Amino acid sequence: MEIISDGPTLVLHGAFDVRSTWEVRAAIYEVLDGPDDEVVIDMTHVTTIDVTALRLLAVATRHAWLNGHHLMIRNPGPAVRRMAHLARLAHALEVERAAATA
């Protein structure tokens, strides 16, 4: 898993699973401890995800909300969305809506 920090945005690359959960968790909470109210997790380049990673995102979303921040998931691919629904965690994640095109 490669994590690129761009201010309040974290861009994840690769497989997001139990092996990378602690690394991603540390990066998310570091950004949440910063001054920005809006934090974005860009998952455009996440190839696979497991339930452990989804639980981390759900807990981080709740933690952000309880502490006056807003955590948003950007561009989750079909595999990520499908796993979130199968794990019954889709309701616990806030996914950024794409702007409508003309």
Q: Could you describe the 3D structure shown?
A:
- It is a single chain.
- The radius of gyration is 13 Å and the shape is globular.
- The model has no long low-confidence stretch (mean pLDDT 92).
- A hairpin with a 2-residue loop joins strand 1 and strand 2 (9-16).
- Helix content is 36%, strand content 29%.
- Helix 1 packs parallel to helix 2 (51-66).
- It contains 3 helices and 4 strands; from the N terminus they run ββαβαβα.
- It has a 4-stranded mixed sheet.
- By secondary structure, the chain is of the alpha/beta class.
- The termini are far apart.
- The chain has one domain (2-92): Transcription Regulator spoIIAA, CATH 3.30.750.24.
- It comes from Nocardioides glacieisoli.
- It holds the Pfam family STAS_2.
- Residues 1-102 form the STAS domain.
- This is Anti-sigma factor antagonist.
- InterPro entries: MlaB-like_STAS, STAS_dom, STAS_dom_sf.
Give me the secondary-structure topology.
Blueprint: E1 2-6, E2 9-16, H1 21-32, E3 38-49, H2 51-66, E4 70-74, H3 78-86
Parallel strand pairs: 2-3, 3-4
Antiparallel strand pairs: 1-2
C-alpha end-to-end distance: 35 Å
**N-to-C SSE series?**
EEHEHEH
Q: In total, how many domains does the architecture comprise?
A: 1
Low-confidence stretches: none
Strand content: 25-35%
The third-level CATH topology is Transcription Regulator spoIIAA
Record field, number of beta strands: 4
InterPro entries: MlaB-like_STAS, STAS_dom, STAS_dom_sf
Protein name: Anti-sigma factor antagonist
Pfam families: STAS_2
List the keywords.
STAS_dom_sf; Transcription Regulator spoIIAA; single chain; 102 residues; 4-stranded mixed beta sheet; alpha/beta; MlaB-like_STAS
